[in-house]
Design goal:
By secondary structure, this protein is mostly beta strands. It has one domain: Copper binding periplasmic protein CusF (OB fold (Dihydrolipoamide Acetyltransferase, E2P), Beta Barrel), CATH 2.40.50. It is built from one helix and six strands; from the N terminus they run αββββββ. The protein has a five-stranded mixed β-barrel with strand order 1-2-3-6-5. Strand 3 and strand 4 form a beta hairpin. 12% of the residues are buried. The N terminus is likely disordered.
């Protein structure tokens, strides 16, 4: 059991730590499947979960990479693979209640 736990911990460290980033999408690279938020280029993988926030009106709705737009406010759960940020989940936030 201890060997299995050590293998899992080692595997987890090689994949990377989890993080979170919030901000506005500055740019989208369709060819490379990346988005840039706060100057950070983030990879979007086929397994990345993308959702539109329900804005208090029911359930979040599933979206695809093609639905992302420059200027969208997003909350991104990140993982790091070889020190490169990769989106595990992207939630497009509501913009109707912006302060400015």
């Amino acid at each position: 059991m201890k060997k299995q736990l050590l293998v899992l911990l080692t595997l987890g460290m090689s994949i990377g730590m989890a993080a979170d980033i919030k901000g506005i999408i500055q740019s989208i690279d369709n060819a490379q499947k990346t988005i840039t938020i706060n100057g950070t280029v983030i990879g979007v993988m086929p397994y990345t979960k993308i959702e539109q926030d329900a804005c208090g009106m029911g359930w979040d709705s599933p979206k695809k990479f093609a639905d992302l737009k420059q200027g969208d406010l997003v909350d991104v759960d990140l993982i790091y693979n070889n020190n490169q940020p990769v989106a595990e989940e992207i939630e497009i936030k509501c913009m109707q209640n912006r302060a400015y």
